[in-house]
Sequence to fold (247 residues):
Amino acid sequence: MSELKGLMHCTRFLQTCGRRLELPDEVITTTAVCYTRISDTVLVSEVEPVLLGITLLYLVAKSSDHPRDLRDCISVATALADPVAVAPIAVDDRYRDVRESVVSTEQLVLRALDFDVGAGLPLRRLLLLFLLSFERDVNTVAGKEGRPPCAPTTFARMARTCTAILNDAVTFGPCVCTPPDELASGILYLGVMLEDILSPENMRMYVGLLAPTLQDAPSLVRVLDTLLSVYERPDICHEELRRVSET
Fold:
């Protein structure tokens, strides 16, 4: 669960910085995906988180033909991490130290990414962590209540449904702009609902544990509306979800 919280915190930090830098959605998403790609490496534990975020934003923006001034990246990230920091950051010894650190970290990040600054399907890793956490928690509760655990085939079917929703939503603008933990939780909610695994009350409880901002009904409805609006597009043909969106 600590890995899950760390991943959500870092992707939200990158998303907020990217918006303040007025980067396009695809650049912000690519930055978050690049972070998930290196999240298993020792680089994440060895490099200070804010420095790593600055480096990723600067590197991906530059590689995507949407470059941002390094000083702007440093100022935005520093101000977000430290509310009392002055923005833009003064060009002094501290700034020069951070700038040199970014240049050094950039080479480490490139090696960790195998010099491929690109994005596969964003949110896939986050959704996988949610699915594994959900399966563990549901079976733990079932054991305490003396009920048999859910069959592995049930979770496998739900994982396929969630993956299909993710693939459909990943290029949809409003979904890209939704915080990653909320979007992954909304996908999980739809998958559980379509496979009829839990009651609506229990679904809301589990989703709220994964994304605390979705514990209230209006927030959950907002994310579900965003996801279901994907199936109003004529190029999407998932009839079961289309029927849900019309109810």
Q: What stands out?
A: Confidence is low (pLDDT under 50) at residues 1-5, 235-247.
